[in-house]
Write a structure and sequence with these properties.
- With about 800 residues, this protein is an alpha/beta fold.
- The strands form six sheets. An eight-stranded mixed sheet has the order 13-12-11-10-8-9-7-14, with helices on both faces. An eight-stranded mixed sheet has the order 17-16-15-18-19-20-21-22, sandwiched between helices. A seven-stranded mixed sheet has the order 23-24-26-25-29-30-31, sandwiched between helices.
- Strand 5 (about 105) and strand 6 form a beta hairpin.
- Helix 9 (about 390-400) packs across helix 16 and helix 19 crosses helix 20 (about 785-800).
């Protein structure tokens, strides 16, 4: 007669069984038609349903005479309220089942049935896509593999202990603990122990009694000489943290133990059961040559028990390295609940104190973060300086840091205000602090084990970096990312010389959060931010989302400041408490921009020629799409007649004019230039052109541009771009001539200037020859020499006519 765990459990009243579990029982009856399937009460939360499964044993019997039988009693444990959303647990129903001889079991307390580990991930997730019959089949396969010694793949690795129920969370670096043990073993052949100082992370946890466990992080491994000092510091911190006024400033401390066996003590046993009391822990340690008893006695006599729980991490030597590790040291952590009635008395531990397995977590490091983010651990971001730590800048910095990239200098002159909490990544505890320094401190908390020397902050402005006393810090960086949404900063970055080799990127949000804009400069700053801005406006001809934005900007501008050709303010600044923009919009654009920024500034994969625009469009229907536009270097020319003026031609315009020159020669041809003018910088940005209208006339000695359809074309261009792009000059070719304007050109320019001066726009004539491109620019309300030349020419023409 087999002794079953469920024999002592009463049958459950059908009235107490949910419809879902009753359906599962009916399914099991169909799977096992010859068995009597009944439900047993396990406890107030679970119902047990025993069945007997057949096991396909090897022909010569189980490998190593392991006690797996052809018919194995098992039971499924159903959660009364949460089935079928929580998968049933599968247990052996046989009390003599060989727990200690098998891997791939979920360790249980002494006397508790063996728990089969059926899935390496979440069994609940697996069960969401599988049936109860699939689960039963998994149990059969598990028992079959156990009989054949195939529960783990054959190889040079050892199966680590699996856990399903863990108590509290302890954070420490396993490699550090292993290094401590390795160093100690060099000088000794005995086992040993070390004191570990932990910082309590959950200040509101009932740490004095540890009812639910608690989260703690290892902060130090004191030497024997420094242990007393650490104890004094811990007692002081605990006293301060217990006071309401200091609760948020200080964290409590507690002490734990790291215990290891002698180098010669190697265990190949699997742990189907683990200790559940201090007495069992001591006996279990004795069996494994772990000096837990001695370490705990010394710990208590030294006065290190400050809180109700004692973390005890034991290192067990395995015959092979663990799966997923290069070490053969398996670390298991327990939490001894020596609290309440079990608090030590008269200098002795209460052996009845409860012991639970604690959940171990590895502290986050930059290398670990890169791994978790699916990035190579050895990839390093080139040094980046971030201007603007507001809502967008803080998100980009946070995303980069979370992926293990912290080579950043954060720059912002402002302090956090209450309204910033709507869109900023930082919480309310930083209100009143400088944005850059607060963000730096927050990001450093991600990686408590790393020094993060390259993560710094400057409470200053872009002006301090470019022209002030912080210039050396700017020179130490390879990339600059401007997230200020400031037109003043934009002008500063365009107009002031920056360190050679510095690549500039600008991130902004436009159109009330519907458009994210990332501008990425090219090598030697060509294309530059202003070139990219002009190219962005030209994108309105290609994408309706950009056109809608520019048209809305014109409508707003005309209603508030009147129409005109002034620059558009692209970015949205969060400095105003009246600005309307949701956190979701900023988060969306910030996440996409961070992905792109990482590609640009990541040292090993940075693309030096990756210049252009990267746009995120949030459509009115809620869908999201991206636009990536490569922008080649622009062709830069100083005006031949006035070097103070500069014309910056897009590459496509240059190519188009040169092609037109070749096709039309020996005759001249030409057309209109499209773009924008910045009078203050004295720059004409040419983003597009119009070919000669059909009513134009060209000959080897002259070109007369017609006007057919031009007014409508110019009007459509201005409408599509919200008036930001339009007519900026004339172009024509000199197939056999020189770069200078002919008398005919001068006369035409003088007449044109009389019209453009009233706008005012500069008069711009570009001459295209086989040898190059030669712009001529005349400022509004100037150019007397041009008028004089034209007048002299007209006098000569009149005189010739009389003759």
């Amino acid at each position: 007669m087999v002794d079953l765990h469920t024999s002592s459990q009463p049958k459950e009243d059908p009235a107490n069984i949910s419809g879902a579990i009753q359906g599962a029982i009916n399914t099991l009856r169909a799977i096992f038609p010859k068995q009597e399937i009944d439900a047993h009460r396990w406890n107030s939360n679970y119902i047990a349903v025993p069945v007997e499964v057949t096991v396909n044993l090897p022909a010569r019997g189980p490998v190593g005479d392991i006690d797996i039988r052809a018919a194995e009693p098992v039971f499924l444990l159903f959660h009364r309220a949460e089935y079928p959303y929580r998968a049933p647990f599968a247990y052996s129903n046989r009390k003599g089942f060989p727990k200690a001889a098998l891997p791939h079991l979920n360790p249980t307390r002494k006397g508790v049935p063996a728990s089969f580990c059926l899935h390496r991930g979440s069994l609940d997730t697996w069960f969401a896509e599988h049936t109860l019959e699939d689960l039963v089949q998994r149990v059969r396969f598990w028992l079959r593999d156990a009989a054949r010694n195939r529960l783990i793949p054959h190889g040079d690795a050892f199966e680590p202990t699996h856990f399903i129920d863990q108590f509290g969370q302890l954070i420490f670096e396993p490699d550090l603990f292993r290094e401590i043990i390795s160093s100690a073993n060099i000088a000794s052949t005995n086992g040993g122990s070390r004191l570990i100082a932990y910082e309590l992370l959950d200040q509101d946890a009932k740490a004095a009694v540890a009812v639910d466990g608690y989260a703690a992080r290892a902060v130090a491994v004191p030497s024997d000489e420094d242990a007393i000092k650490h104890l004094q510091v811990a007692e002081l911190l605990n006293e301060l943290a217990s006071k309401e006024e200091y609760k948020k400033l200080f964290k409590k401390r507690l002490f734990g133990l790291l215990v290891w066996a002698p180098p010669a003590s190697i265990s190949s046993s699997y742990f189907g059961e683990l200790p559940s009391s201090l007495e069992e822990l001591f006996s279990w340690g004795d069996d494994l040559s772990l000096p837990i008893r001695e370490a705990m006695t010394s710990y208590l006599s030294g006065g290190y028990q400050l809180l109700g729980g004692v973390p005890v991490t034991v290192a067990i030597r395995r015959p092979k390295p663990l799966i997923g590790s290069s070490s053969n040291l398996e670390l298991l952590t327990f939490l001894v609940l020596a609290t309440g009635d079990h608090w030590p008395k008269d200098g002795n531990w209460d052996l009845a104190a409860e012991v639970n397995v604690a959940d171990h977590r590895t502290p986050l490091t930059q290398s670990f973060a890169r791994s978790l983010s699916s990035h190579p651990e050895d990839y390093q971001m080139a040094p980046l300086i971030l201007l603007g730590c507001g809502s967008l800048g803080s998100r980009i910095a946070t995303h980069l840091a979370r992926s293990g990239q912290t080579a950043m200098t954060l720059v912002d002159h402002a302090k956090l205000s209450p309204h910033h909490m709507v869109r900023h990544t930082l919480g309310g505890r930083y209100i009143g602090r400088a944005k850059a320094e607060a963000l730096r401190d927050e990001l450093k908390e991600f990686f408590p084990e790393d020094t993060l020397d390259q993560l710094t902050a400057i409470e200053g402005s872009a002006f301090d970096l470019v022209k002030g006393d912080k210039v050396p810090q700017l020179q130490a960086h390879r990339y600059l990312l401007d997230a200020t949404a400031s037109s003043q900063v934009l002008n500063l970055l365009i107009e002031e010389p920056l360190p050679p080799g510095l690549k500039v990127v600008r991130a902004e949000i436009g159109h009330h959060g519907r458009l994210g804009i990332m501008s990425i400069e090219g090598d030697q700053r060509n294309p530059r931010l202003d070139d990219l801005q002009a190219s962005l406006f030209h994108t309105a001809f290609e994408d309706t989302a950009v056109a809608r934005w520019l048209i809305s900007v014109e409508t707003s501008r005309s209603g508030s400041v009147g129409s005109g050709l002034e620059d558009v303010q692209i970015g949205l600044s969060c400095s105003s408490a009246t600005m309307r923009l949701s956190d979701e919009n900023v988060a969306l654009h910030g996440a996409v921009m961070s992905l792109r920024a990482r590609d640009v500034v990541w040292g090993a994969t940075a693309k030096s020629n990756s210049a252009g625009l990267f746009l995120t469009v949030l459509e009115e229907n809620g869908s999201v799409r991206t636009i990536q536009k490569s922008v080649p270097p622009v062709h830069i020319c100083a005006a031949r007649n006035d070097p103070q003026w500069q014309v910056r031609f897009s590459a496509s315009v240059v190519q188009h004019m040169q092609t037109a020159l070749r096709r039309a020669k020996p005759s001249e041809t030409g057309g209109l230039l499209i773009g924008m003018v910045h009078n203050k910088r004295r720059i004409v940005y040419v983003t597009g052109l119009l070919d000669a209208p059909r009513d134009s006339e060209g000959s080897p000695v002259a070109f007369k541009r017609g006007i057919q359809d031009l007014p409508e074309a110019i009007k459509n261009i201005e409408k599509c771009t919200g008036g930001l792009l339009g007519y900026v000059g004339e172009w024509h070719t000199h197939p056999a001539g020189g770069p200078d304007m002919s008398i005919v050109d001068i006369v035409a320019a003088a007449r044109l200037k009389g019209v453009l001066d009233t706008v005012p726009l500069p008069t711009h004539i570009t001459i295209v020859t086989p040898r190059g491109i030669y712009p001529h620019v005349f400022e509004p309300n100037t150019g007397q020499m041009l008028i004089r030349k034209a007048s002299l020419y007209m006098v000569e023409v009149a005189h010739a006519a009389r003759l």
